[in-house]
Write a structure and sequence with these properties.
This is O-acyltransferase. It is a single chain. This protein is mainly α. It contains 18 helices and no strands. It is globular and about 85 Å long. The structure holds coenzyme A. The site of coenzyme A (COA) has 16 residues, from α14, α15 and α16.
């Protein structure tokens, strides 16, 4: 039965494509119909007999039965009952329309503003004073915290510290990692906004990595104690020779491999790829360079003028103009975000992983098919999702929290890190009610469309709010005070 349906399904698809090629039917199609469905004309939905082989069809062409039948029982392609799902042409049409409409916008932008792309100007985003490099210095200083965490773990591994003292030292170290760069970014005048974002981001990543480093080493110690208690501490020979076991992992080489590896979750034995594929690596590096240029160009040419023009409506609280500006900003912002996603999660992380022969390349899943905001957040940034799940969510569940509280906790922690690193693409706290609304009222394709709308509209709202606040704090305050 299954076979029969499959055969008739593929036959129907083949006929459909042939119809489109031949302009809607003709003698050959009619002959096919006569052979495929001899009963359709009489009984309508009678079972379809096994189709005749192609060879017979060819010999019947021109035999005089050609114009007998040109209709059969079938649904229109757009009906869901037709089982037709090949919309590749429509997808191509969407892409062509997108390119054409954006080409018009691009031309309009060029005519209005001229060429604004200036690679030299980018340097000033990172550097205010050529003799002062606070952001790179901050990143170099971060090594001290990594080494501190390593030394604490070393002492704990030989029982030179009690677990409580170790925990206290780790907490102090991790708290400093959060506070120190924020204080520097606020107090040092020569640091630029872009420089401080990058430095704070590096520190946030280091915090998450060292948190994981501490957790995993603690789990290893707990296991060692359990194994000792069960007096089965001997690890089987074959496995022990190939893999590193605690405390042999406590080396600088292992720590720095983890710090540079494209993951936030520590493991004693990461899966490793067998070799570095040079062509793959070269492609990723070329993509990294190309997309960096493209993003910078699009931001300078397209985003900056729109943002600058949005400040006045925001100041005057002119709502209709604010909405118009938001919608105008939505297109370039979304395009840049998509490029950013590919650049970071595919090009950069794969390039680093290839260089380090890091085997786990699941940096993202199919978030573009998300039918809920929660699914999107679980799948667009897998390193962060894995960390949240392994070091925050599951431990909370194990301690007896219910799922809703644990999820909200994860979102709040995530929001905190987004704010700490001023990574202004999202306003995460607002996502909790948003996730609820989308999940409650939109399902299936509507849910997917709702997720896209929140991505396309939500981000420019956040960008404009952050830029507005920065503008008011840094450029408006002295004037209003005067
Ligand atoms: C909160 C979050 C971690 C939840 O993840 P999730 O996969 O939906 O969680 P689930 O409830 O389905 O459970 C996941 C795991 O918990 C385990 N689990 C469930 N109850 C458990 C319990 N009582 N004890 C221990 N583990 C439990 C499940 O077995 C499952 O394990 P598996 O992943 O190994 O299969 C996820 O939504 C998330 O990562 N959110 C934040 C993402 C984010 O901020 N991203 C920012 C990117 S910039």
């Amino acid at each position: 039965m299954g076979d029969r349906n499959g055969t008739s399904g593929s036959r129907r698809r083949r006929t459909a494509s042939r119809l489109s090629v031949q302009g809607g039917g003709g003698p050959v199609a009619a002959e096919e119909e006569a052979q495929d469905h001899p009963d359709v004309g009489a009984g309508g939905d009678a079972p379809t007999p096994t189709p005749a082989p192609d060879k017979d069809r060819d010999t019947n062409v021109g035999s005089g039965h050609l114009e007998l039948r040109c209709h059969r029982l079938q649904e229109s392609l757009f009906s869901s009952d037709s089982g037709f799902s090949n919309y590749r042409g429509i997808l191509n049409w969407c892409v062509v329309m997108l390119i054409l409409s954006n080409a018009r916008l691009f031309l309009e932008n060029l005519i209005k503003y001229g060429i604004l792309v200036d690679p030299i100007q980018v340097v000033s985003l990172f550097l205010k004073d050529p003799y002062s490099w606070p952001a790179p210095c901050l990143v170099i200083v971060a090594n001290i915290f990594a080494v501190a965490a390593f030394q604490i773990e070393k002492l704990l591994s030989v029982d030179a510290l009690t677990e409580q003292v170790g925990l206290l030292l780790h907490v102090a170290n991790l708290a400093t990692i959060l506070c120190f760069p924020a204080a520097v970014a606020l107090l040092v005048k020569s640091i630029t906004p872009v420089g401080s974002v990058l430095a704070l981001l590096s520190y946030s990543i280091l915090f998450l990595k060292l948190f994981s480093y501490r957790d995993v080493n603690l789990w290893c110690r707990q296991r060692r104690v359990k194994m000792k208690a069960a007096s089965s501490g001997k690890v089987s020979g074959a496995a022990a020779q190939q893999t590193v076991s605690y405390p042999d992992n406590l080396t600088y080489r292992d720590l720095y491999y983890f710090i540079f590896a494209p993951t936030l979750c520590y493991e004693l034995n990461f899966p490793r790829s067998p070799r570095i594929r040079k062509r793959f690596l070269l492609r990723r590096i070329l993509e990294m360079l190309f997309f960096t240029q493209l993003q910078v160009g699009l931001i300078q040419q397209w985003m900056v003028p729109t943002i600058q023009n949005s400040m006045k409506p925001f100041k005057d609280m002119d709502y209709s103009r604010i909405i118009e500006r938001l919608l105008k900003l939505a297109v370039p912002n979304h395009l840049i975000w998509l490029i950013f996603f590919y650049w970071l999660f595919h090009s950069c992380l794969n390039a680093v992983a290839e260089l380090m022969q890091f085997g786990d390349r699941e940096f993202y899943r199919d978030w573009w098919n998300s039918e809920s905001v929660t699914y999107f957040w679980q799948n667009w940034n897998i390193p962060v999702h894995k960390w949240c799940s392994r070091h925050f969510y599951k431990p909370m569940l194990r301690r007896g929290s219910n799922r809703w509280i644990a999820r909200t906790g994860v979102f709040l922690v995530s929001a905190f890190f987004h704010e700490v690193s001023a990574f202004c693409f999202t306003h995460l706290p607002s996502l909790v009610p948003l996730a609820w609304i989308v999940g409650r009222f939109f399902q299936g394709n509507y849910g997917n469309a709702a997720v896209w709308v929140t991505l396309i509209i939500g981000q420019p709202v956040a960008v404009l709010m952050y830029v507005h606040d920065y503008y008011v704090l840094n450029y408006e305050a002295p004037t209003s005070g005067a």
